[in-house]
Amino acid sequence: MHIVNTNKMNLRTDLTIDTKIPSNKILETSGISLYNSRKNDNNYSTITFIDPTDTNQETIIETILINELKRYIKNYNKYLIIGLGNRKSTPDALGPKVLDNIIVTRHLYSLGDVDTNYKNVSIYEPSVLGTTGIESVEVIKNIVNIVKPDCCILIDSLCTNNYDRLNKTIQITDKGINPGSGVFNDRGELSKNTLNTNVIAIGVPTVLDIDSLINNILIKSNIKEIELEDNLILTPKDIDFVIDKISKIISTSINKAIHTINRQ
Questions:
Q1: What values do phi and psi take at 260, rounded to 5?
Q2: Phi, psi of 238, rounded to the nearest 5 degrees
Q3: Which residue, 69, 105, 140, 244, could crosslink 257 as a Cys pair with Cβ 3.0–4.6 Å?
Q4: CATH, domain range 13-208+237-258
């Protein structure tokens, strides 16, 4: 049994919202909103929605995400897309599942001419320390040195401190990401400073720790401390279906934002 002080529960977990950076609402349509913010020369974007499994919402989310990614991507020619996380753990499988539908072309560039509509794209799935015994951050640094991309796109599952955001936001930043930091398992920074290339991080909050959930419920009652047997990580019961849908939205959006084909 341990005591949890609810006054201290403001852990930064999400890429954008939990950083408490003031955001501007750019658009709102059909229950979907886009927020942009900027701090210390870093850009942050958050797309919020109600249900990514709804066909109409899926189409709108994809259109907004494509346009937002184009704003971050600029005129890069060579990309390395990295799917962070653990394929064997559904809430943490977003990154690897996104890679399953990415159009890969780097090997074609090494063979000869490639249609100018396609950029040079490679992917990498580092898995997690518990599976490989190797720190993914160190491996990624070496892969980046080999591939030498103009831009590295990182996709990861996030931990949030607000139940309302579970599987209902897609977040983007050019600041980078610290894999595992949301679940007290920080594996090191992946950013332009550490990788020596441009970085775009894309994340979706897929889990919530029980302390934060209880805090959400009890803080309105002015309860300052609670006792818990142990800390647990929670995820919605339909996580399998939702992860499949969101991963396809993200992969399709990345493909259409990078390449100049089938953008309609």
A1: -105, 30
A2: -95, 25
A3: 69
A4: 3.40.50.1450
Q: How far apart, in Å, do the first and last CA atoms of the chain sit?
A: 56
CB distance 247 to 101 below 8 Å: yes
Say which residue the tokens 């899926």 belong to. Answer: 58
pLDDT at 21: 67
Residue 246 confidence (pLDDT):
97
Cβ contact 49:57 at 8 Å: yes
Weakly modelled stretches of the chain, pLDDT under 50: 1-13, 18, 181-185, 263-264
Find tokens 């990614």 and name the residue: 69
Strand 42-48 relative to strand 32-39: parallel, antiparallel, unpaired?
A: antiparallel
Q: What three-state secondary structure class fits 199?
A: strand
Cα–Cα distance, 48 to 28 (Å, whole number)? 9
3-class DSSP state of 29: strand
What pLDDT, on the 0 to 100 scale, is given for residue 225? 61
Local structure of 51: helix, strand or coil: coil
Question: 33: closest CA among 43, 21, 19, 23?
Answer: 23
Nearest to 259 by CA among 64, 27, 77, 133: 77
Q: What is the Cα 54 distance to its own chain's centre?
A: 20
- Name the nearest CA neighbour of 128 among 80, 95, 174: 95
Four-residue CA torsion sign, 95, 189, 49, 151: negative
Element (H, E) at 144: helix 136-147
Q: Is 108 exposed, middle or buried (0-12, 13-18, 19+ CB in 10 A)?
A: middle
